[in-house]
Every structure is written in C-alpha cells, then in structure tokens.
Amino acid sequence: MKLQKASRYALYAVLHLASEPGKQFSTADIAESYGISIHHLAKVLRTLVRSGLIESVRGVGGGYRFAGNLRRTTLWAVIHEFESLESEIDTPDDLTGNAAIVIRGLDSVMGEIDGLNRATLDSITLKTLLRYGVENLERES
Amino acid sequence: MAEAADIDAVVALDAEITGTEKADYWTDVFEHFAGANQRLKRYFLVAKTGDDQLAGFIVGEIRAWEFGSPPCGWVLALSVTPDLREQGIGTLLFEALCTAMKKDGVTTIRTMVLGNDKVNLSFFRGEGLAAGPYIELERRLE
User: Fold this and answer.
1) The domain spanning residue A98 has which CATH number?
2) Does A125 contact B131 at a Cβ distance shorter than 8 Å?
3) Which residues make beta-bridge pairs with A54?
4) Fewest Cβ atoms nearer than 10 Å: which of B15, B33, B36, B115?
5) What does the alpha-carbon distance between residue A5 and residue B130 come to, in Å, rounded to a whole number?
6) What's the number of domains chain A is made of?
7) Minimum-distance CB partner of B121 among A71, A115, A123
8) What is the pLDDT along chain B (142 residues), one digit of tens a residue?
9) CB-nearest partner of A74 from B115, B116, B122
10) Max Cα separation, chain A?
C-alpha cells in the first residue's frame, strides 16, 4: 500500500496539530517540520478544514489548530478525505475465458487486502498513534 | 468473578449493545467460565457500580498449541454499559484479566474482533494490541 502524497501530508498535519491540541501552527511551521511543499500542504489543509478535522485561526499569529476528537478520530477518517484505498486492476469489463478467471481471482485477493488495510487504519485513533510514536522513541533511546 | 446472579444483567447489557438477546448462550458461558466446574484458566469478570449494578464484563481463557501457539490469553467478550463508557471501566476489566493471566504464566494476550467494530478495535489498539503473527481465515459452509 502506498498512500498518495495528499493523504500523507494530511496525516502529518492532523497529527502534528493533534499532538498539541489548542495550539495553532502555521502552514509554514508544519511544512518546515516535515520538509514538504508549502503549496501542496496549503491545499490539503483547506480540505481538512472543510472536513472539520482542523480549523483555521485568523488574525496575527493565525494558523490552524486541531478540531477533531483525539480519542475518536482514526487514521482512516483522515485518509478517506483524499483517497478510497481501493486497488484498481484496469481491465475491460467484457473479458471472457481464462482472462475473466484471472481477473476475478485477482479482484478477490486485492479486495481482501484493501479491506484489511482499511480496517487497520480505522482501528487506530490519533491518540493511539501518538502514543505508539512516544513509546517507540523511548524504546530507541 | 461473575456470579450466577449477574447473568440476567449480562444478558440485558449484551442485548442492548448487540440487539440480540442470548440468554442460553450467556448461561452456558457462565457455567463454562465461572460456574461451579470452573477451571483455573478461564475467567468471567464483572465490574459493578457502588450500588451493585453491572457496569461491564470481560470473558477470557488461556489456550495453548493451536497451530503451534504457546499458551496465550484470549479475550472472548468485553462489554461496558453505554452510559458508563469513557470512564476507564473497560481498561480496568482488561487489566484485571491481564494480571490474572500473567500470574498463570501467559506472556501474550490476543483477541479477534470484527473489522468494522470500531469501538472494540479502537479500544484494544488503545490498550496496546496490534496485528500479530496469526491471520483469521474463514469460508462459508454451503
């Protein structure tokens, strides 16, 4: 599974803001922290505001802050604003014979993998993920 | 440990959450896990409020050598009264089960939850459980 760039940027941004709820960060702050394009991130942040996961703060020192529920919002809730994580096997609909058998078989396996990916991402809340990060850092040090 | 007097409340809580009343099932579970013939490695624990009302329950057992798995604790059921959620009751029950199983010499705890059961999946993730080396497989019997 490879997440699209927009999904990855969205996860960085939402988790960055969620790591200090109530505190606001500018687009530049977040882009610099992760070494990513400020222009692409700005577009992603606008989508996240529309989804209600973050909110924009206007005025001097304005920026964005987390607006979701740390214990309820899952990684999938962030990602599915940008992609469906459905594997696509581009083939004509009118295949017959061996080709139809092969494609049906592959569709079935890819569907199983997609379902597991989504279930995993939908089981991990932002709070749990941030805890994983802290625990892994502590273990490494 | 659950007592026979708790079963009606367990049946009612489970029916409230799942939408299906399973009195026979829970009576069997009680007899199997906490009744007079209980074995040491099966648990049916309940949490009670100050006025002796059921707040939640957890059922678990230790299984061994299924497809090579060393003795391992399994959580088979966990429910908390909806009005009393987000107060740490599920964690309390889960930790009590872990403590009891650890004393039995178990070093791993495992469960199986529906992929779309977000409440339980998120709960167990929050308690530190992650995907393990076993994969659930099934097929329809037609």
Assistant:
1) 1.10.10.10
2) no
3) A66
4) B36
5) 26
6) 1
7) A123
8) 888 888 899 999 999 988 888 888 888 888 877 765 555 588 999 999 999 999 999 999 998 888 888 889 999 999 999 999 889 999 999 999 999 999 999 999 999 999 888 889 999 999 999 988 888 889 999 8
9) B122
10) 66
